[in-house]
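Re-run requested by the PI after the first attempt was lost when the workstation crashed. Everything re-entered from the original request form. Ligand of interest: copper (II) ion.
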Amino acid sequence: MTALIRLRRHDHPQRSQRSRVAVMAGLGLLALAGVPASGQEAKLSPEERAAICAEAEPRLKDWLADHPIGEGTVAVAIWKEVFCPERLTVKAGRKVVFVNVEKRTSHSVWFRTDGRPESPRFFPDETFEQPADLAEGDHDYVCGPHPWMRGRLTVEGAPK
Ligand SMILES: [Cu+2]
């Protein structure tokens, strides 16, 4: 999808017709593949995401009060199908704990482009711990059941 959008944005005006066709074909393929073309991703503005993450903050704080995590472990909250924060930078060797602070929805964390297996689904109040044993650089992840949920973990100070 990103590639298609990029194609469209950088296309020359005289080629816009062709790019429109490419976008249409892409959307058709997405529909065939069963990927929700109008998932929450399409509906949420950056402001709405920020508002959701602002709501997630006290929920995460409450959770952490009952479940202390070690120094150097960084928490990412999941609330209303958004990873909060969606982008996080950690030093190599740190752990990232994903905390589901939803009321009833289960999620997974999947560093798919790194060839990692999908995490088990975890329910409200449950967590998934990701050791930051990834190479230095950006690592995108998604939620398996809700592929419009995306996040990026940037690891610093690891071998490339
Ligand atoms: Cu999910």
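Saved to the shared folder this time. The domain at 45-156 is CATH 2.60.40.420 (Immunoglobulin-like).
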